[in-house]
Structures are given as C-alpha cells and as structure tokens.
Amino acid sequence: MTSASPHEPRSVLITGGNRGIGRAIAEAFLAQGDKVAVTTRSGGAPEGALEIKADITDQADVDAAFAAAEEAHGPVEILVANAGITADTLVLRMSEEDWSSVIDTNLTGSFRLAKRAAKSMLRLKRGRIIFISSVVGLLGSPGQVNYAASKAGLVGMARSLSRELGSRSITANVVAPGYVETDMTAVLSDEQKEGIRGQIPLGRYAQPEEVAAAVTWLAAPASGYVTGAVIPVDGGLGMGH
Fold first, then answer.
1. So what's the pLDDT on residue 118?
2. So which residues are the catalytic ones?
3. Residue 184 in 3-state DSSP?
4. Entry pTM
5. What residues contact 208, with CB distance under 8 A and at least 6 apart?
6. Is 86 within 8 Å of 184 (Cβ atoms)?
7. Strand, coil or helix: what is 56?
C-alpha cells in the first residue's frame, strides 16, 4: 500500500479496464494500493492489475469474473461498471440490433454486475457500486437514442439500489463524464471537436484521469455518506442535469 492511501487495500473490480476511462480508473486504484481486477474482451490490462477476459452480456462470464477476482483478492468491495459500447445512428435508421446490443451491454450488463456484486457486499455489510454513465444520458444527443437511454437508465438503477442496499452500508452512485480525450472521441473530425468544445464552459475535453478522480473519491472512506448521487465530470456542459 502506498503512503497516498488512507485505507487498507480493498478488492476492486472494474469492467472495461484496459483502455480509456476504465484504464485510468484502474491505474488510480492501483496507485492507492488497492487490489484491482479488470475485465476486458481484448486484453491489455494495466500493469499490476489482474486481467480477466469476460463479456458482460454473458451471465456466465460475469459470474466467472467475480469468482476469479474473489479468488485472487477476496470479496469484491468496490465495483466500477464502466464497460460500454455505442452504435450511433438516427432513430429512423436505428435497427433492433443497434438498440438491443447497446441496451444489453450498457444497461443490462450493469444490472448483471450489480446483482452479482450485491451478493458478497451484503455478506460483508459494506460496498461501493459505481456506474459510469454519460452527460448524454442526462441531456440527450441526436443519433444516440439507444446510448442515451442506456446511460439514463443507470441513474434509476443506482438510486433504486441505494434504497435497497443502504441499510447494509452499501452505496450506489453514478459518475457522468462529458467529452473525454479517449479513442472514442479521437475519431471525430476537427470540425466536430471544435463544435463540441464550443458548448463546454471550460472550453476543453476532460482527461481520463479527471473522471478517475471522481470515482476514487466516491470509493473513499470519507465518502461513505454519499449514495444515489450523480457526479458530473463534464466541464459544465450539463450544468447539473
């Protein structure tokens, strides 16, 4: 455990922890001295993390991922449901598959994870569940009806879990990033990037590490009285929505 960590090492499971926001979150927990497992479909976990190949649309994979994390690090005390996909297109062109694949990964996948995490957390009588949503889930975005719906659903899920599990000292919260410098935004044209930047009061994209800082704060001992919250990391784009 590093001197920067004010707590004993905890067992942390992060989905989609091999790149972008998920990787930054994993690295932030590792820097605190926590025991980190990350799920990935393509490999490439950060050094020091337990890499688990898993697809969160498959319940058997979810169960196996938790079993592997628990065997290596003990019961999962902190779950960060970060893995997600997009299939953007205008609603009239959106296929059933475009809709169902995004909902199944982003929303139903998070449900599978939270349900499995709650089992061990209820026995421990403590735990932190943190969903990575998006400002798009709160504001909406043309061409992202499926993605926005999936990310908005995480808010209702977290708040319901907060009420169900709070008596056992288990919190459930949401972090809602805005536009972040990742591989997903790198594919935008310069014109698109400038148009987005012009809508953000701080005038820039976030760094993945800034999202990770909000996640580790929610997981910290000092934040044990925060539950059912939505923490925006969006440069003011959503203005608290």
1. 98
2. 147
3. helix
4. 0.94
5. 20, 21, 23, 24, 25, 180, 181, 182
6. yes
7. coil
Residues 72 and 36: beta-carbon distance below 8 Å? no
- β pairing state of 35-40 and 50-53: parallel
Q: What ranges do the domains of the chain cover?
A: 11-224
Cβ atoms of 124 and 75 within 8 Å: the answer is yes
DSSP 53: E
Q: Which CATH number fits domain 11-224: 3.30.1490.20, 3.40.50.720, 2.70.50.80, 3.40.640.10?
A: 3.40.50.720
Would you say 236 and 203 are in contact if contact means Cβ atoms under 8 Å apart? Answer: no
Detail the DSSP E strand segments found in the chain: 11-15, 35-40, 50-53, 78-81, 127-132, 170-177, 230-233
Q: What is the pLDDT of residues 11-23, one digit of tens each?
A: 999 999 999 999 9
